């Protein structure tokens, strides 16, 4: 199966990020990773990448509850950036609040809301959706 080129993980939990990277390697999910600990770090690093159109991630796995800039604030800034290709965003959160799922309707760039933990089967489904 063909791999995704670059996956971007935006999450402040180092244990979750470590585990997700391991799962992605086992699932043969992607060639490489971009890891950011909060939305501000992600925006600051992704903006020049998106504007240049080089080495852009194919998918972003975004946590909602983070310090400095949370997932919602990240999305508000992200949608303002001109991009050379569509990037699929999945919210990956431990939140089970229906308000969070409802709020996603305001963001066309978000594909799905995934409740942690992420599994190898789920990564396979995401991969099939992205590589059509």
Automatic annotation (TrEMBL):
- Domain of life, per UniProt, equals Bacteria
Q: Record's SMART domains?
A: REC (SM00448)
**Residues where 4-aspartylphosphate is found:** 63
Keywords from UniProt, A to Z, are: Phosphoprotein
Please give the biological process terms from Gene Ontology that the record holds.
phosphorelay signal transduction system
Q: Which residues form the Response regulatory domain?
A: 6-131
> What is the name attached to this protein's record?
Transcriptional regulator
Q: Which organism is it from?
A: Neotamlana sedimentorum
């Amino acid at each position: 199966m063909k791999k995704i080129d670059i996956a971007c993980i935006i999450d402040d939990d180092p244990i979750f990020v470590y585990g997700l990277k391991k799962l992605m390697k086992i699932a043969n999910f992607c060639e490489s990773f971009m890891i950011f600990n909060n939305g501000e770090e992600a925006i600051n690093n992704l903006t020049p990448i998106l504007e240049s159109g080089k080495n852009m991630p194919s998918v972003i796995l975004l946590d909602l509850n983070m310090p400095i800039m949370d997932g919602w604030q990240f999305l508000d800034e992200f949608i303002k950036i001109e991009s050379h290709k569509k990037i699929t965003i999945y919210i990956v959160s431990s939140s089970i609040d229906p308000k969070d799922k409802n709020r996603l309707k305001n963001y066309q760039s978000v594909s799905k809301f995934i409740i942690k933990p992420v599994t190898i089967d789920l990564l396979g489904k995401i991969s099939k959706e992205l590589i059509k």
